[in-house]
Amino acid sequence: MDSQTETEALQRILHREWGADEQVDWTAVEAHLHTPLPADYRAFMAVYGGGCIDDLIILPPLPTGNGWQASITDDAAGFRELWTTEGGAPGIELGADRVLPWGSGCNANELGWLMTGPNPDQWPVVVWRRHGNPHWALFDCGMAEFLRRLMTAEFDECPLSDLSLWGRVGTFVHHEEQERRFHAGLDPMTGEPNPYAGMFD
Fold it and tell me: pTM of whole model > 0.90?
């Protein structure tokens, strides 16, 4: 499926109640990252924004400025260093400057794109699995398709070294809603009262 169709397919299963338009200045992002980003990712930011699907962080392109510590910009150096130290995906000769992160979490899995050419809509997903062998794996699909197929178990096997979202649709919560809940003494993901609220202020 093309990126628009895959984005629509993901939206049919992933609830948007706690999403928010990230209102991204894509011209500024492209200038900062020196590349455009895939259409399905841009559509995700317009519908859901940056935040979490359960324990999987979906990175906004730039720092949010609200205390939420995750973005493509902030995470790119670490992702690229991991590519270098772990030798990259088997059979791939591209250097660390050709990978870019878009997700992180689920017990230390790192997700991104392999920037194979000038058209970002053709970039495959590349994943570092903490307990994978090999650690790096390449998936010939975009971000939206990867997320949908993860949560509907449509890969031959779980693409992450964590089964928490395998065959199960998680709940997305935007980073601003997480911050609001945290400061209200609630669990950032569930919205339930947090018994540990205020203990570490």
Answer: yes
